[in-house]
Amino acid sequence: MPAESRDTTLGKESWREVPLQKSTRHGASAGKGGLRPVPFRGGGFTHRPLSLISPLVFISLIGLWELGSQTGFISPIALPAPSAAFGAFVDLVRTGTLWRHLEASLFRLIVGWTLGTAIGVAVGLAIALFSVMRAGLSPVVSALFPIPKIALLPLFIVWFGIGEGSKVATILFGAFFPTVIATYGGVDNVDRNLIRMGQSFGLSWLSIVRKIIIPGAMPAILSGFRISASIAIVLLVAAEMIGAQFGIGAYILMAGSLFAIEQLIAGVAMLSILGLTISWLIGRAERFFLTWRT
Amino acid sequence: MELRIEGVSHDYGETQVLREISFSVAPGEIICIIGPSGCGKSTLLRFIGGLERPDRGQVLIAGEPPADSLNPLTYIFQDFALLPWRTVAGNVSLVLEDHGIRGAQSRAIIDDVLARTKLSEFASAWPRQLSGGMKQRVAIARALAVRPAVMLMDEPLSALDSQTRELLLDDLIDLWKRERFSAAYVTHNLAEAVRLGHRIMVLSRRPGRIREMVAIDIPLDERPERVLELEQIQRRLWEAMRDEARAADRELSDAG
Q1: Closest partner residue to B51 among A1, A3, A200, by Cβ?
Q2: Is the CB of residue B126 less than 8 Å away from at least one CB of chain A?
Q3: How far apart are CA A2 and CA B196, in angstroms?
Q4: Which among A96, A120, A193, A279 is least surrounded, fewest beta carbons within 10 Å?
Q5: What does the alpha-carbon distance between residue A129 and residue A148 come to, in Å, rounded to a whole number?
Q6: Which residues pair with residue B24 across a beta bridge?
Q7: Between B95, B128, B166, which is nearest A5 by CB?
Q8: What percentage of chain A reaches a pLDDT higher than 70?
Q9: Contact (Cβ atoms closer than 8 angstroms) between residue A202 and residue B145
Q10: Does the CB of B77 have a partner CB in chain A at under 8 Å?
Q11: In the predicted model, what is the mean pLDDT of chain B?
């Protein structure tokens, strides 16, 4: 109680210093079996950063695979050696076709994903902020989200043409829906007290949206980006397999139909590297936008 | 500037929250509002600051607020309500930006309020790096930046440990001596109320009515020396509240 803490005149005689040593010695003699430490029962259930493990796992997996192929344990018809796949990749680089495939794929991916997420964030904010939009649009989003967008590709071809339009549209729609849902979920989870604080200081509606709601929803929006980027890669390959001359998907399809398995593996490895690169970029974006978190 | 609360009553659906609350807050006066949990203390404070509308009755402002006051009715929240994505200085800057105060002028105000709350060296720290007491200091600095006429404090010390609470209570008293702000101070801590309040309003349990209005005539800076008198007042308040608090504790809650 604060009143008592200030009181220096009362109760001065009611306390005195107690020698510390005595009590510990008393404690020691009380134990029958002598002194022993308390058994440790904590620890575990946390992660230590072990940065060397993951490259080691990769290298040893590929090394084992190469060894299996060299010794003939893995048939080259079933699975080509990593070195053969790498050879196919070097061929791609040398002939210059790599750039044509990569260029085509990256163009579709970047345009489709950027437009899809930009429109997705805008629609997500509209749904989160306006009751009319929420009532009108959120059932539409719920109805269209589960449709595999690739099933709509024939329709997109009719609407946007056989060229780039239909492929970009597939990726756009694929990235759009998860972004909408992540965005309005993120806004819904912004601390109401922060919004009330903004109102109590007389902040304008726009300021509250810009300075409180959007930064508060940012972690959810960025994790939505991770999901929409993976969906975009899946749709990219699917769309390119259905109808494209160039692109990683087209390259894989062609390799498959020619039964050039080492080229197929090289193509799949490229997709994996593409996915890792995008995930790394989003990680950087998270670090940039979310410095305020731990 | 004076605040007048006239016949405020409110219900949340079936739950009766407040009944016929009338009182006024004079310039430079601190009114502490105490009462059992769930009696509508915080709701009342939201009405006073215009964050919610009461079903009946009204909250009136008499007289003009000081000309330099950017936000006459300013809150201090129990959970601090700092933006985690802004630094200490950024959190203060937030409430100036909408008044078009930027650049050097804004920096001068921020430096001033941070100095007054002993936060100068923490200007670029993130909220997550600060202890609870420091966070509440930032919130107080933010409130000072808009030069409030009335501070509306919703259990500002309740989320803090008792030592920090002591320190901050002293700071609040020092601040009041310098600025002479008026305040409505909601708390459930009677010791805080008798240390800080010029008048103490005791609410009954839900639906909250004014049970008692106790004026304490001891000036704030004499109170540390006159503990015995304060303790008597505190005991009397507790006598008035105990049965209500016990009954409120046994109620099932379905409204905030």
Answers
A1: A200
A2: yes
A3: 12
A4: A96
A5: 28
A6: B4
A7: B166
A8: 89
A9: no
A10: yes
A11: 91
Q: How confident is the model at residue A15 (pLDDT cuts 50, 70, 90)?
A: low
For residue range B133-182, what is the model confidence (pLDDT) as tens digits?
999 999 999 999 999 999 999 999 998 998 999 999 999 999 899 888 99
What one-letter code names the amino acid at A238?
Answer: A
Reply yes or no on whether the pLDDT at B205 is more than 90.
Answer: no
Amino acid at A200: S
Instruction: Tell me the average pLDDT across B200-209.
Output: 89
CA distance B148 to chain A (A): 10
pLDDT, averaged across chain A: 88
Please, are residues B133 and B164 in contact by the beta-carbon 8 Å criterion? yes
Task: List the single residue in A6, A201, A215 with the smallest CB-CB distance to B227.
Answer: A6
pTM above 0.90, yes or no: no
Domains of chain A: 82-289 (1.10.3720.10)
Residue B242 vs residues A2, A6, B202, B204, B249: alpha-carbon distances, Å: 20, 26, 11, 10, 10
Residues 6 or more apart whose Cβ sits within 8 Å of residue A60: none
Shortest alpha-carbon distance between residue A15 and chain B (Å)? 21
Question: Among all residues of chain B, which has the CA nearest to that of A219?
Answer: B85
Give rounded-to-5 percent helix, strand, coil for chain A: 75, 0, 25
* Non-local CB neighbours of B102 within 8 Å, separated by 6+ positions: B96
Binary contact (A200, B85; C-beta < 8 A): no
Q: Which of residues 202-241 of A touch B (CB under 8 A)?
A: 202-204, 207, 211-212, 215-216, 218
Q: Is residue B93's pLDDT more than 90?
A: yes
Peptide bond before B207: cis, by omega within 30 degrees of 0? yes
Which has the closest alpha carbon to B214: B231, B234, B229?
A: B234
- Residue A2's pLDDT is 46
Return the amino acid letter for A208: I
DSSP state of A208: I
CA distance to A259, B5, B251, per residue, from A93 (Å): 20, 79, 76
- B194 contact residues in A (CB cutoff 8 A): 3
Distances A10 to A101, A284, B170, B191, B229 between C-alpha atoms, Å: 87, 62, 22, 19, 15
A172 pLDDT higher than 60: yes
Q: Residue A19 — pLDDT band, cuts 50, 70, 90?
A: low
Chain B contact for A4 (CB, 8 A cutoff): yes
Among B84, B146, B191, beta carbon nearest to A3: B191
